[in-house]
Amino acid sequence: MITINGISTAADGKTLAQYLETTNYDPKRIAVERNGDIVPKAQYGETLLQDGDVVEIVSFVGGG
Q1: pLDDT, tens digit, for every residue of 4-34?
Q2: In this structure, are residues 4 and 11 in contact, taking their beta carbons and an 8 Å threshold?
């Protein structure tokens, strides 16, 4: 199990890109931290989620 934004999720074995495809997140408007390190967008397709990972996904919201 992986903890994503505080919720246990069965996403181990998927790449970060594969997981994000199953969500409503806009990849252009998010930042992802995995186990305390920021994951560059260029690495989403090669970052393999593993059992015990802690992932935080933050969405950027524009406004004025």
Answers
A1: 999 999 999 999 999 999 999 988 899 999 9
A2: yes
Distance CA 40, CA 42 (A): 5
The two tokens of residue 5 are: 């934004």
Secondary structure, 3-state, the chain: CEEECCEEECCCCCEHHHHHHCCCCCHHHEEEEECCEEECHHHCCCCECCCCCEEEEEECCCCC
Check if the beta carbon of residue 58 is closer than 8 Å to that of residue 31.
yes
Torsion sign, CA atoms 11, 13, 17, 21: negative
Our CA angle for 58, 51, 18, nearest 5°, is: 55
Q: What's the one-letter identity of residue 42? A: A
